[in-house]
Design brief:
InterPro entries: Flavoprotein-like_sf, FMN_Rdtase-like_dom
CATH architecture: 3-Layer(aba) Sandwich
Strand content: 15-25%
GO molecular function: oxidoreductase activity
Number of helices: 5
Protein name: Flavodoxin family protein
Order of helices and strands: HHEEHEHEEH
Organism: Mycolicibacterium hodleri
Domain NADPH-dependent FMN reductase-like: 32-108
CATH class: Alpha Beta
Helix content: 40-55%
Structural class: alpha/beta
Radius of gyration: 14 Å
Length: 133
């Protein structure tokens, strides 16, 4: 799923967007402040987002609270059972940050299908395209 999102975000048809990848445990407030938009991905573990993504939000939330309002983001989630809790958690945090949902979330339960991967590609391309406007 990550590779499909990355492929969409870096498609040659979208010019002027530099995609910077960061593992959630290494994200700093500076990384978030320097970005114009965000693509977030996480497994749904035990009904919630990964501890790594939650850690990234914990580290960056207050330092980025006012400065990043209005920036677009996209989210893709993968769970073997439900993704509702992870979706609810990310939505609550991004709403608090004032980020703008750039596209419908990609929510996948079980093994990702070709259709799921195409949706991930579209998510990456949609968020990237909004950064060029």
């Amino acid at each position: 799923m990550f590779e499909a999102v990355l492929s969409g975000a870096t498609t040659p048809e979208i010019e002027g967007v530099d995609v910077v990848r960061r593992a959630a445990l290494t994200v700093s407030p500076t990384d978030v402040l320097e970005a114009d938009g965000y693509l977030l991905g996480t497994p749904a573990n035990l009904g919630y987002m990964s501890g790594a993504l939650k850690h990234a939000f914990d580290v960056c939330y207050y330092p980025c609270l006012d400065t990043t309002r209005g920036r677009p983001f996209g989210l893709y989630l993968h769970g073997n059972e439900g993704t509702e809790g992870a979706e609810r958690g990310v939505t609550a945090i991004t709403t608090g940050l004032g980020w703008v949902k750039a596209a419908e979330y990609v929510l996948v339960s079980g093994r990702p299908t070709k259709v799921d991967l195409e949706a991930c590609w579209e998510l990456g391309a949609t968020v990237a395209a909004q950064l060029t406007q």
